[in-house]
């Protein structure tokens, strides 16, 4: 029996979403994110930990990217963004939307289906209606800038009211000054233009999408910083954060001991001796502001190979 590829699954779920509903069903999202074994939201997306999503803010893009690359996920980063608030960090659970150049028969079908589902307003507002607190609205609008503005300040306010987050658009926005005035809102976009959205249509909500170099699934967790964005499969969030936090502790310990002259760079940069490991564990006991709980650290250390 031939196993379905990710591409074939993506095409299947996209076509199913269009044929049956505007957004994918919970069952379809569960199938797309089958490696997640934890709790889920009513829409099927993984219910990843709020605590780990908050801690993710302190992880560097390089740490997140390196972890995922070691897991075989080589296409989860996209850079070169225009950022509304460049010095802030955004993390959250992904809601996806796929936009395409307008084709009347397809567009009419989507609008009719949306109307039958009770959706109101323009189709570019429908993904906003499904947002929950902690969600990040991620849309592929195929890099269209002029006449490709998915939101202005009105929809920006609606997005922030529902999610307390912002957007990541492979496309553009308008009303940039109004968006900048929304305290707490942020956006990673490919451009700004004063034009209104034209000759574009919504393809589907919560389907697999492409954001530049990255493949993104609904329910991924995003880390967005000044240097770019990393999309993290839900099943790896907690382990990624724990690994990065442990490395940060190792680095802090190593830097302190080097400043004190207790060890040489050669001792710190190679595989640690048992004496250095023992010193590190004793040092941890003296730290008052660990990024993780002591129980989390003890559990993590059981499987850690240094």
From TrEMBL:
<dbReference type="Pfam" id="PF03737">
    <property type="entry name" value="RraA-like"/>
</dbReference>
<dbReference type="GO" id="GO:0046872">
    <property type="term" value="F:metal ion binding"/>
</dbReference>
<feature type="binding site">
    <location>
        <position position="175"/>
    </location>
    <ligand>
        <name>Mg(2+)</name>
    </ligand>
</feature>
<keyword id="KW-0479">Metal-binding</keyword>
<feature type="binding site">
    <location>
        <begin position="152"/>
        <end position="155"/>
    </location>
    <ligand>
        <name>substrate</name>
    </ligand>
</feature>
<feature type="binding site">
    <location>
        <position position="174"/>
    </location>
    <ligand>
        <name>substrate</name>
    </ligand>
</feature>
<dbReference type="InterPro" id="IPR005493">
    <property type="entry name" value="RraA/RraA-like"/>
</dbReference>
<protein>
    <submittedName>
        <fullName>RraA family protein</fullName>
    </submittedName>
</protein>
<feature type="signal peptide">
    <location>
        <begin position="1"/>
        <end position="19"/>
    </location>
</feature>
<keyword id="KW-0460">Magnesium</keyword>
<dbReference type="InterPro" id="IPR036704">
    <property type="entry name" value="RraA/RraA-like_sf"/>
</dbReference>
<keyword id="KW-0732">Signal</keyword>
